[in-house]
């Protein structure tokens, strides 16, 4: 007789065999179809799929689609290389190429002399230019120079960001994607967005981003190229494939399919590469230190504000949790569960982008500035976490103390203020320190709403110098300096508050 364990294993195999065979059959059918009979090594191609109609996630099936995607796929077929897509943030593409963690990147990336000092480009495959977008009911700005002193929202690391940064006195806030920058404008927190014409047209016409219009168009002429690591072995193949598609008319077909227009004439080489230009901004240590210092100051301010408000909220919640009221209890629990149980990133987006969008769709004019949004989100979180910490501290105080306070005739509030709280606070100091240190690091999330705190300052520098390792290690060290200082200060406080034995 078979061993019982072995038998059950056999049953399992029998039960699953059908499924496994079906799966294998599916793979066998799909594989050759997917690779189009390609025989060469696959190419890993990076893209930032937040830039329709060039690259975006198809809302129905989540697949990466777009003009760039079809074009690259066609180049792969032409040259016999299957394409493996690697979604990356736009400002991470050049560092990824430098690190050779991708073989190429296609992302509506403009060929610039500056970028070509860090990476190589294929021949141009698209002609575009920058435009200024404004709110339909707001003032128009036709030239970049008119944006002096205005608030401009851009996507980090793009040519639009570069143009905006050169407008004197403009307050530029950078976002991880162009849709977020446009949302910032729609919400009334920026006066203009500078980005590529075709992408903006698409956002306004197709994505039905209401309330926005283009006010200045074709402020520059740019050509997109496929980005490749310096001296990449596949550059020649990519160019050969692209040339073949242009010659065979397949390129024109694709262009018409996506833009319902005929493509402009493309030069063999982007003029930008031959224009005299400033050399690649080196990593100036002075500038780095200055920017990190600026970022650190903002990080500290965010931490201090959020911790103060969070502590107040946490104390209020902990006290309410002691109260004999059922309803208050229930509400506190819901609050704590919500803010501890959902990612802070989501809360931040909800408060900063979601709330104004909702209220404005209900015709309520409402905008929230980023400091208020960041401090609100961070404080609400700190309060939720500290409520539990403080509650356990309060409950750890011996019942005898409570009774003694009662016997002395103290009111419940006085009992808390003079007897329980001071002892509880001393006990919860170590977890409080933990929360503070966590908060210092969590402020980096505010970067997503365009806050130039420490991490974003680093990101911004990487976007112009492409020195990812040096800059991020410096950023990490500054955070480390702040967290270790905080932990030392808390240790001191703990020693100071120690009861004499
Ligand atoms: N053409 C602009 C640039 O090269 C913007 C490209 C943005 N692309 C994207 N997938 N987000 O900077």
How does this model look, in words?
The chain is built from 17 helices and 15 strands. Helix 4 links the parallel strand 10 and strand 11. The chain folds into three domains: 136 residues, 3-Layer(aba) Sandwich (D-Maltodextrin-Binding Protein, domain 2), CATH 3.40.190.10; 91 residues, D-Maltodextrin-Binding Protein, domain 2; 212 residues, MetI-like fold (Orthogonal Bundle), CATH 1.10.3720. With 501 residues, the chain is of the alpha/beta class. Helix 11 packs across helix 12. The chain binds arginine (ARG). The site of arginine has 14 residues, from strand 2.
Q: What is the count of DSSP helices, taking H or I runs of 4+ residues?
A: 17
Proportion of beta-strand residues:
5-15%
* Termini Cα gap: 71 Å
Give the C-alpha Rg: 29 Å
Task: Give the topology, please.
Elements lengths: L3 H32 L7 E5 L2 E2 L3 E3 L6 E2 L1 H13 L3 E5 L2 H9 L5 E2 L14 E2 L4 E3 L1 E6 L15 E5 L3 H7 L5 E5 L2 H9 L5 E5 H9 L6 E5 L5 E3 L2 E2 L6 H14 L1 H10 L25 H38 L3 H16 L2 H18 L8 H26 L3 H9 L4 H16 L1 H14 L11 H12 L2 H30 L4
Parallel strand pairs: 1-5, 1-6, 10-11, 10-12
Antiparallel strand pairs: 2-3, 3-4, 7-15, 8-14, 9-12, 9-13
Helix pairs in contact: 2-7, 9-10, 9-12, 9-16, 9-17, 10-12, 11-12, 12-14, 12-15, 13-14, 15-17, 16-17
Bound molecules: arginine (ARG).
Give a quick precis of the structure.
By secondary structure, the protein is α/β, with parallel strands linked by helices. The chain has 17 helices and 15 strands.
């Amino acid at each position: 007789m078979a061993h019982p364990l072995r038998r059950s294993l056999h049953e399992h195999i029998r039960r699953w065999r059908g499924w496994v065979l079906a799966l294998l059959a599916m793979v066998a059918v799909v594989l050759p179809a997917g690779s189009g009979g390609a025989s060469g090594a696959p190419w890993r191609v990076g893209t930032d799929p937040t830039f329709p109609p060039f690259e975006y996630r198809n809302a129905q099936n989540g697949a990466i689609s777009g003009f760039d995607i079809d074009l690259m796929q066609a180049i792969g077929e032409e040259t016999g290389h299957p394409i493996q897509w690697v979604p990356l943030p736009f400002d991470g593409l050049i560092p990824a190429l430098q690190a050779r963690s991708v073989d190429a990147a296609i992302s509506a990336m403009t060929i610039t002399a500056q970028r070509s000092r860090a990476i190589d480009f294929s021949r141009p495959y698209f002609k575009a230019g920058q435009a200024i977008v404004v709110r339909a009911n707001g003032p128009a700005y036709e030239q970049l120079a008119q944006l002096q002193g205005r608030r401009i929202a851009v996507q980090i690391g793009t040519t639009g960001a570069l143009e905006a940064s050169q407008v004197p006195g403009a307050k530029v806030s950078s976002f991880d994607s162009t849709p977020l920058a446009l949302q910032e404008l729609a919400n009334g927190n920026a006066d203009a967005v500078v980005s590529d014409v075709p992408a903006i047209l698409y956002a306004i016409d197709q994505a039905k981003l209401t309330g926005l219009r283009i006010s200045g168009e074709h402020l520059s002429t740019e050509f997109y190229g496929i980005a490749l690591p310096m001296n990449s072995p596949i550059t020649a193949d990519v160019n050969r494939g692209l040339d073949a598609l242009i010659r065979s008319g397949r390129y024109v077909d694709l262009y018409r399919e996506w833009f319902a227009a005929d493509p402009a004439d493309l030069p063999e080489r982007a003029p930008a590469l031959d224009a005299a230009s400033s050399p690649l901004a080196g990593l100036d240590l002075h500038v780095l230190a200055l920017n990190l210092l600026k970022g650190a100051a903002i990080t500290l301010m965010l931490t201090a504000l959020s911790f103060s408000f969070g502590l107040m909220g946490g104390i209020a919640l902990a006290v309410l949790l002691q109260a004999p009221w059922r309803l208050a209890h229930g509400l506190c629990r819901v609050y704590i569960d919500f803010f501890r149980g959902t990612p802070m990133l989501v809360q931040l987006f909800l408060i900063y982008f979601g709330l104004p969008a909702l209220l404005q769709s209900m015709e309520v004019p409402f905008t929230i500035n980023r400091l208020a949004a960041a401090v609100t989100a961070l404080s609400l979180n700190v309060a939720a976490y500290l409520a539990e910490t403080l509650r356990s501290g309060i409950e750890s105080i011996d019942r005898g103390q409570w009774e003694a306070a009662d016997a002395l005739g103290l009111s419940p509030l006085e009992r808390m203020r003079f007897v329980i709280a001071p002892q509880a606070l001393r006990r919860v100091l170590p977890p409080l320190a933990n929360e503070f240190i966590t908060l210092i690091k969590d402020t980096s999330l505010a970067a997503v709403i365009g806050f130039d705190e420490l991490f974003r300052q680093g990101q911004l520098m990487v976007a112009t110098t492409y020195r990812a390792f040096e800059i991020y290690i410096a950023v990490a060290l500054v955070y480390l300096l702040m967290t270790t200082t905080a932990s030392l200060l808390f240790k001191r406080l703990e020693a100071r508050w120690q009861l004499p034995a």
